Amino acid sequence: MRAFITRWLVLGASSLLATLAACAAPDAAPPPDPEVASQTSADTADPADAADAAFRGDACSDIAPAPHFRDWPRIHSAIRSDARDEAWIRSVVAAMTLEQKVGQMTQGEIASLWDPTTASYQLADLTRIGLGSVLNGGGSWPESNKHAAVGDWMALADAIWDASPTVTLPGRHPTQVKIPTFWGIDAVHGNNNVFGATLFPHNIGIGATRDTCLAREMGAATSRAVRTTGQDWAFGPVLAVVRDDRWGRSYESWSEDPAVVRALAGAMTTGEMALDRDGTSFHGIITTAKHFIADGGSTDGIDQGNVLASEAELMNIHAQGYFTALAAGAQTVMVGYFSLNDQGKDAGNQHLITDILKDKIGFDGMVVSDYNAIGQITGCTNDHCPQAINAGIDLFMVPFDWRTFVPNTVADVRAGLIPMSRIDDAVTRILRVKLRAGLFEEPRPSARPGASNPDNLVDHALARRAVRESLVLLKNNDSVLPLRSDRKILVVGKSADSIQNQTGGWSLSWQGGPWTFGPNDVNLNSDFPNGESILAGIRDKVGADRVTFSVDAAGIDVRQFDAVIAVIGETPYSETFGDVATALGNRGSDDASLRTLELGHRMPEDRAVLQAVSGHGVPVITVLVSGRALFANAEINLSNAFVAAWLPGTEGGGVADVLFRNRNGSIGNDFQGRLPVSWPRAACQTPLNAGDPGYDPQFALGYGLTYRSRVRVGTLDATPGPAAGCP
Ligand code: BGC
Ligand code: BGC
Fold first, then answer.
1. Which residues lie below 8 Å from residue 398, measured CB to CB, with a gap of 6+?
2. Minimum CA distance residue for ligand 1 atom 2
3. pLDDT per position as a tens digit, 513-533
């Protein structure tokens, strides 16, 4: 409604009204109640009630058990359909040529617009083709500059806006409508591609917090950070329910527990979108529910693999986060690279996309295909895939092939391979999302509220709180923790002074680390000017003069110290490169013995450093930095206390906040985190999920000690896995 009124008043130019609406919006609305998401996902709520309820207060929900569905529920989105908006969209679609429509359905990479010969962006093709959207993939930055400043991002955002196509609406007074080309970015733990941004813990750590308020606030902070660099749309949150921790994207999942994913999905979406009071639009950013569907359920945890699941399992396990995200108003769903029950790649699966998502669930936003995902459909290539359009994909992420995708698709429509009604439906959905996001009335990105302010990239306090809440204490024998802050501390381990290891994949670069596709993939501490390593946080807490750091403890007399803190764990990876069960996931190594969850086998340097520091009568506190639960019994045995810190992001200081007492001896922060995934008792114990028949983990889903617990963890069975790797 807001969208409707202001658009007819201004059409093209920015008016006082639009400016007022836009300026007033961000702070005027009280934070919506994430509970709404769970309430509205049942098949009962009235959509109008839902929108109102979104503004009722700022209480945060507990994690309620996930409801059981016997059939796909119809979800009532907190964003109401507006009849006048729909009529306007129809008039625009009617005025578009086929070429313009297909252009609108297409998304290209910013790097594909860069002209190396002139060292400048050439946007004429964008205008000519009428590209509906652009993206930057992981590790793609303006001018390929990893250290691009806020102004560089914004300059490109403005240039893209300026080059966006226009459509002429006929009539007595023909009017020109600019259809802004919108920009999507993988903001999955903060605005993580951007130099200087705060990176929050990855989802698995947020799952450990089970804090829906935190998720909502992180959503709002991410929205601010994305708007400041000029993008409209985040490719997140990831709603995967990870069921096999060998999956390379395990850390992008909040939990193996659908109830946790369900609760956090609604909260995060609510925070990122920031609905307007009238319930027809929003002023945050467009969010994406991804990757539809059951990406966390792939056999052997193989990325882009096959999922064996019944529809009952889909709706009761894997789709739970979609129900709340869509109820909270999510406007985009990304279809991933998986196949369901060997039926071919999901992006070509009409039953999933059209019958279930659009018809049964009632999703009226747009469906986007993942990066070149259409090329994986049998009979398709990256620039040609009528099957995917007919299956119900609306917007095509064809990063480097859009210049041919568009004419190929136009020819398909002309040849009768794709019905015009399908094209019109896709374009309608895309324009609807742009309209609800306010893009037709917002000015150039740099003139929008919150634009270009580097302060918006940073939220130390919120991220540090997230780190504190996400830590899970697995062992604390003899209450060696919390440590007094006047102790002499030896810090060891390769991850103690590595913001790269702390931030993991999807951090500045795609892989986020040393598994390189080029020098730009490696992140140094200096690449995070607003970040702090775990070591730096410890030094801050107790004073640098009390802290000695040695990566491997070589030549160190451990008995000179009051305590050892060992920070160990995984090095960064993303997507297929993080899989445990394949050679690709093991850095191209054919060494099958690496196909194990055994920490000490995958990371022998970590076991070695613990062996070096333990057994000297000095307590050893191990902090494990990892994107997944690992079989770590040998390392737990070598430690007096053991903390799972997941991938905490740029605020390493949050770790010391919890490990140490205040100067006056009081406890400042107790442990709050609880396991978001089941912790294995053997190298090959996967899949391992609460509720499995014979469920027998080392530490169960939800386990987590506090400083009040008096649990003694005895010597654990550390029998190594099979020398040949797991079957
Ligand atoms: C990933 C998506 C991501 C996209 C764009 C794909 O490879 O699967 O999660 O949003 O790339 O970077
Ligand atoms: C991009 C990622 C993308 C991946 C897909 C990479 O080059 O940077 O964003 O997910 O390709 O293969």
1. 106, 107, 108, 372, 374, 382, 383, 405
2. 370
3. 876 677 788 999 999 999 999
